[in-house]
Structure to design on (324 residues):
């Protein structure tokens, strides 16, 4: 029996993170990477001092209410924490931490990837070549939308949105507009060439590309509903690297089918890993499997950040990234 804190790690993490966790804790790793599911999580909450969870683990109010519970910290591997009922955790004295900052660049890079892919039809083009359909260069073949100099509308202006603005404005000379109920200081936005708009609706009406960067919450659930999608221009594209349920996926399909918007680049979905079948048949849609933070460097950094939160917690120090 070890007297080190027991930490259940719900998914397989990079080796360097496993090594760190093994060195400091009685770490119960998951090298087979099998999702624990509700029963596994229930058992983990009863037997571990802390859980290191990911977006695929639903830590619900019911699970947190189950007795006996030993867990006092849920250290989430991710900046988003909508997989955890944080109010229930707070009410039961369970601390929650996340991993901000370290995934900002990777996620912003992926938002730009989606924007460029959907505008320049690169997914479609790649399928065309791989399927042996390409008959040769021609002046009117697969013309896409120009990106440089266009208007990018950011929904939310937190860390990741700012990193996207930096890339879009300074790299692609895009005009950047944004709406955020909690806007950044004016000089921060100015340095990114980003102009505020008073309402989300103004952003939607004016942008050639709309990129979503708000957290998932009851307030942002289906923020992009039928009415708001209808405000976008018919030649505009939607990019989502935030959370799937910020978009009403059925309404998005309707808007795409009706040609009310030009296309969409999606890294996240309402019911992951399920993707609305109609989307998979559309050439003006780029679909990625939640890859926002998926670089080796970033996933190691996320793991080490969760590790730091665990270490601080068990050393009796304030969490670096306390959510509640
Ligand atoms: C995040 O950090 O929120 C990513 O989406 C992975 O969960």
């Amino acid at each position: 029996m070890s007297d080190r804190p027991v930490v259940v790690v719900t998914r397989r993490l990079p080796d360097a993170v496993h090594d760190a966790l093994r060195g400091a804790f009685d770490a119960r790793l998951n090298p087979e990477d099998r999702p624990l599911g509700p029963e596994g999580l229930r058992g983990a909450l009863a037997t571990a001092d802390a859980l290191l969870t990911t977006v695929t683990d639903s830590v619900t109010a019911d699970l947190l209410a189950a007795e006996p519970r030993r867990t006092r910290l849920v250290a989430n591997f991710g900046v988003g924490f909508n997989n955890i009922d944080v109010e229930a955790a707070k009410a039961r004295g369970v601390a929650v931490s996340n991993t901000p900052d370290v995934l900002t660049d990777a996620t912003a890079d992926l938002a730009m990837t989606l924007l460029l892919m959907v505008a320049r039809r690169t997914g479609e083009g790649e399928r065309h070549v791989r399927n042996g359909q390409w008959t040769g260069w021609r002046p009117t073949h697969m013309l896409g939308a120009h990106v440089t100099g266009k208007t990018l509308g950011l929904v939310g202006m937190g860390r990741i949105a700012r990193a996207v603005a930096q890339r879009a404005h300074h790299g692609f000379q895009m005009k950047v507009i944004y709406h955020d109920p909690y806007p950044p200081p004016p000089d921060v936005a100015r340095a990114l060439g980003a102009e505020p708009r008073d309402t989300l609706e103004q952003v939607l009406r004016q942008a050639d590309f709309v990129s979503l960067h708000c957290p998932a919450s009851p307030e942002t659930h289906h923020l992009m509903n039928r009415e708001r999608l209808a405000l976008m221009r018919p030649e505009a594209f939607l990019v989502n690297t935030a959370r799937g349920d910020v978009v009403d996926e059925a309404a998005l399909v309707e808007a795409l089918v009706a040609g009310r918007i030009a296309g969409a680049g999606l890294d996240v979905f309402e019911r992951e890993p399920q993707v609305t079948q109609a989307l998979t048949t559309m050439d003006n849609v780029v679909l990625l499997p939640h890859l926002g933070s998926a670089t080796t460097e970033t996933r190691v950094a996320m793991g080490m950040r969760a590790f730091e939160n665990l270490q601080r917690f068990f050393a009796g120090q304030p969490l670096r990234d306390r959510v509640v």
Q: What stands out?
A: Residues 55, 78-80, 103, 292-293 surround (2R)-2,3-dihydroxypropanoic acid (CB under 6 Å). The two ends are 31 Å apart (CA to CA).
